[in-house]
Amino acid sequence: SYVLTQPPSVSVAPGQTATITCGGNNIGSKSVHWYQQKPGQAPVLVVYDDSDRPSRIPERFSGSNSGNTATLAINKVEAGDEADYSCQVWDPSSDHGVFGGGTKLTVL
Amino acid sequence: QLQLVQSGAEVKKPGASVKVSCKASGYPFPGHHIHWVRQAPGQGLEFVGWISSNTGGTNYAQQFQGRVTMTRDTTLSTTYMELSRLRSDDTALYFCASVVGTTYDYWGQGTLVTVSS
Predict the structure, then answer these.
(1) Distance from C-alpha of A62 to C-alpha of A71, rounded to nearest angstrom
(2) How far is A25 from chain B (nearest CA, A)?
(3) Which of B2, B104, B112 to mutate against chain A (most A CBs within 10 Å)?
(4) How many Å separate Cα B16 from the centre of its chain?
(5) C-alpha dihedral sign at B10, B112, B15, B48
(6) Is residue A102 pLDDT above 90, yes or no?
């Protein structure tokens, strides 16, 4: 089955830009979605189809996808952005979503 | 807007079964695939399976086949996930979610299942 690889953790100072990567074989040919999850809560979709944002998500969140790596960028990071972030693609052969292992974003 | 509300936390002994419910409101029940995704402590999200609220058809992840059963009650707009022969590594937060296209757009609040002797 398709495997997505994320770094376990990323740290960034407030006001800086955080980048979280998601690696997969030829992931650039797939649509990648990103979720934010705070402890004990359900995931929240923050970016879909590589780079689109749900209306309730701030413009500070953006995404890109090319080659073997998709990236979530969070500009002007705030303390409230501290959370786990997971990437997800659809596996048509098994007809379900595949998730990356998640990245814990720490705001220093 | 679709809302998914799950049943409460469960504590089970190894070898027992657990049945978690997920009630949908705010949208016509038939027409959604309800997915179940779990998250073990400190781990990532893991697909368990889905059920079609329309047809009752199911699709289970290979690692759960033989232990998981998903059903639905259209009169109650509720889907159920039953996991049998529980082990300690089944301890996790179990979410139901509705997929729109290929994204998990709507999520339940999660149900903590603890397996402990």
Answers:
(1) 8
(2) 18
(3) B104
(4) 17
(5) positive
(6) yes
8-state DSSP, B15: T
Residue A56 backbone class (left: φ over 0; alpha: ψ -120 to 50; beta: rest): alpha
Candidate from B46, B49, B104 with C-beta closest to A45: B104
The DSSP secondary structure of chain A, one letter per residue, reads: ----B--SEEEE-TTS-EEEEEE-TTGGGS--EEEEE-TTS--EEEEBTTTB--TTS-TTEEEEEETTEEEEEESS--GGG-EEEEEEEEETTTTEEEE---EEEEE-
Tokens of A101: 């292992």
For A24-71, how does the pLDDT look when each residue is reduced to its tens digit (9 = 90+)? 999 999 999 999 999 989 999 999 999 999 999 999 999 999 999 999
Closest CA to B110 of B97, B91, B99: B97
Which residues in chain A touch residue B46, judged by CB atoms under 8 angstroms apart? 99
CB atoms within 10 A of CB B87: 11
Q: How confident is the model at residue B28 (pLDDT cuts 50, 70, 90)?
A: confident
Tell which residue, A107, A106, A98, A94, has the closest CA to residue A35. Answer: A98
Q: How far is A97 from chain B (nearest CA, A)?
A: 7
Between residues 48 and 77 of chain B, which touch chain A (CB distance below 8 Å)?
Answer: 49-50, 59, 61
